[in-house]
Amino acid sequence: MDKKELQEAIIKLKKEKNAVILGHYYQRDEIQEVSDFVGDSLALAQEARKTQCDIIVFCGVHFMAETAKILNPERKVILPDMNANCSLARSCPADAFSKFKEEHPDHIVISYINCSAEIKALSDLICTSGNAEKLVNALPRNQKIIFAPDKNLGGYINRQTGRNMLLWDGTCTVHDALTAESILRLKQQHPQAEVIAHPECNSAVLRVASFIGSTKAMLNYISKSLATQFIVATESGILYEMKQNNPDKEFFAVSADEGCACLECADMKLNTLDKLYKCIKEELPEITLPADMIQQARKPIERMLEMSQQLGIIK
Ligand code: 13P
Ligand code: SF4
User: Fold this and answer.
1) How far from chain centre, in Å, is Cα 192?
2) Which of 68, 142, 210, 249 is most deeply buried (CB count within 10 A of its CB)?
3) CATH of the domain at 191
4) Among 174, 216, 269, residue to substitute to test ligand 2 (most atoms within 8 Å of Cβ)
């Protein structure tokens, strides 16, 4: 089947099976085109909680599909490619983290949603890049906090809030590979362009950015900004939505090395239309988790959603 036929077959199957396709902004364009809902981690978690469909087809990485399962234990959650993992989630193994937590019994644990279900189960509060700063600010000033797994996001939140959270030494290898030099080189070619960056980038990159935010925050910023050109320091999949929403503006993708045209998360790109079709047809591979882990991991996610609602971050 060609692309169009595959997309039509996916849409037909989805209706027959009462399935919903949730897609992250970093997914391939052709997957975003057939998704019922495209969003950032926070919006996808909300959408997963709301759905009445029998099957959730999660087009993203493993921890995102796990989050959907934790919020919907009674529904079937499937992921086109089970190997679509996340380097950041991998950088925080549960046994080592559990030891680290034991060494700091007076600290609460805030974990970025980009972590495994085991880490979520060890956490008091989950955050996303879209709500981390406001959630941390809402906690008492004297509260001791461990922040995991992303030291770049954690460092950024520390600087923004004036806190001194203890940071787990993890990174997203995709964002962390970006350098300020490569961005400045691009800026020389496009001096009018504004640099916008995801907080998973290292501090040198963040220093040269005029706007820092989650994928959704970047999209909002671009739509409101008077600038017409943007250097986008995050995964290039986001450019699809940026161009859709702002056809009159110009976007330049950054790359980590000179040989590659743009920054891509290889894990996100493991999901393809072919795999998506097969996944809905066979209802496999399916995300399964032990009931006690679901129960434990759900509490800090629910807490995040409740706090986000109270703080007016989400409706
Ligand atoms: P968002 O929370 O902005 O969607 O980011 C998720 C992610 O994986 C960034 O690399
Ligand atoms: Fe994980 Fe980085 Fe890929 Fe986001 S871009 S899913 S943080 S590896």
Assistant:
1) 29
2) 68
3) 3.40.50.10800
4) 174
